[in-house]
Amino acid sequence: MAVHEARLGPSWRPFFGLNGTTALLVVRDPDAADHVVRRLAATECRVVVARSTEDALARLRSARPDVVVSELELPDGDGIRLMRRLRARTPADGGTTPAVALLSPTSHHLATRALLAGYQAAIAFDATAIELLLAVADAHGRHVGRADAGPRARTLAS
After folding, report:
1. Summary mean pLDDT of the chain
2. Contact of 102 with 36, CB cutoff 8 Å
3. Do 120 and 101 touch, CB atoms closer than 8 A?
4. DSSP designation for 43
């Protein structure tokens, strides 16, 4: 049985509060990246894509993202190492940028380590569009109705 997701029309965009936000997406597979980009772009979020840890760190300097969304399995390391390197930076260099970890079926066991490394949330790659957007908005602290809420750690990888 196929699972069908509701289309996110214009009336949904303000709900997530991501319009005008820049996300740095760190995903090695182009098809997976396109899948996530489409979901984020539906909320008028600008998405900058990196394919590796080093690429992400370089793009962090130039893109100055509001939030990082990264898978944990990268070709030149892993998302946990990326997060540790990010958190070692000063706030002016992006060290406090909120982040969401994307978990593949083989990396679900790393959710707790990801949160301890500095991600605000860990969510399954195959989560629904709404779950992904809520996790990103919540990490960024811009979810409508919760605009005063700061980032809080949670896992949506059940």
Report:
1. 81
2. yes
3. no
4. T
